[in-house]
From TrEMBL:
Residue span, Cytochrome oxidase subunit II copper A binding domain: 127-239
Provenance organism: Paenibacillus oralis
Localization (cell): Cell membrane
Keyword terms, alphabetized: Cell membrane, Electron transport, Membrane, Oxidoreductase, Respiratory chain, Signal, Transmembrane, Transmembrane helix, Transport
Entry's transmembrane regions: 45-72, 93-117
Name assigned to this protein: Quinol oxidase subunit 2
Length: 306
């Protein structure tokens, strides 16, 4: 059976909509299920921005469909034929005025959110922030807890309701540190230490990953984030201290080599390891310890301890 021109046009107009609604809908939208104050504010910002954009987009889509249908080529068409029409002040005000107002509102909201969600801005809380030093390696994540003196690979554990101060760097190609349910991304770059404050308001297991392409095993650069009570977190720290080996400079050097790693736990790590990673590629400019100096420092400490 032959299709009419109108039905063909209608089918073609539905293709983009079908693609929009069938692409990626099977995935769990964890970005829209926040578990912390930063992620909640970011979700609200996305929702407000989407609603404002729909003020322009939805009427345009509806008018497009109406115009295509009303002025389609068919016999007995009753639409008014006005070949001399060229201007309408009322219509010009509508289709220029509304978008301009929307853009102004979006601009004000975006500026306010930019300052309110500044990544390095400490979170308001009666709890003391917990510092976690994050190092992006090929293809794994190293987490150092300077206050607790422990380190982990591909597992991050944090206490519920406590602000977490992440200090982020890379000892490998640039990556992006991301825990979708707690907040947005923060780039990890060699030679720099970026600061990001996040907080988990609920206990549970969350998903974290690298969000920047870094080569062959980029897809394996994910890690578990577990939010627990403070008491459980302290027990976890004590367990690692009593049952895990120490991370040495030689161990870190092996860890930094390109490879995929399972979860690892270390009862201690060399003092200043994070700072050494940050300044590793700037050592020739006297901005930090070179690898050889750091190694010699560790040997001196070991000798003095004996």
């Amino acid at each position: 059976m032959k299709q009419s021109k109108a039905s063909k046009r209608l089918a073609m107009s539905l293709v983009p909509a079908l693609l929009l609604f069938t692409t990626g809908c099977t995935r769990n939208m964890i970005v829209l299920d926040p578990k912390g104050p930063i992620a909640e504010q970011q979700r609200d910002l996305m929702a407000i921005s989407l609603a404002l954009c729909c003020v322009v987009i939805v009427p345009v889509l509806i008018m497009t469909a109406v115009i295509v249908w009303r002025y389609r080529d068919r016999k007995g068409r009753k639409a008014t034929y006005t070949p001399e029409w060229e201007h309408s002040t009322k219509l010009e005000v509508v289709w220029w005025g509304i978008p301009i107002v929307v853009i102004l509102i979006l601009g004000v909201i975006t500026v306010q959110a930019t300052y309110a969600l500044e990544p390095s801005r400490p979170l308001e809380s009666d709890q003391k922030p917990l510092t976690v030093q994050v190092t992006s390696l090929n293809w794994k994540w190293l987490f150092q807890y300077p206050e607790q003196g422990i380190a982990t690979v591909n597992e991050l554990r944090i206490p519920q309701g406590v602000p977490i101060k992440f200090e982020i760097t890379a000892d490998s190609p640039m990556n992006s540190f991301w825990i979708p349910q707690l907040g947005g991304q923060m780039y990890a770059m060699s030679g720099m230490a970026m600061t990001l404050y996040l907080q988990a308001d609920e206990q549970g297991m969350y998903w974290g990953s690298g969000a920047n392409f870094t080569g062959t095993h980029f897809a394996d650069m994910y890690f578990d984030v577990k939010s627990t009570s403070r008491e459980e977190f302290d027990r976890w720290v004590d367990e690692i201290k009593s049952s895990s080996p120490a991370l040495t400079l030689d161990g870190y050097k092996r860890l930094s080599e390109p490879s995929v790693s399972q979860k690892q736990f270390f009862s201690s790590f060399p003092e200043g390891l994070f700072e050494m990673s940050v300044t590793k590629y700037a050592a020739s400019h006297n901005h930090g310890l070179s690898w050889e100096k750091a190694k010699r420092f560790e040997l001196e400490e070991t000798t003095s301890g004996q």
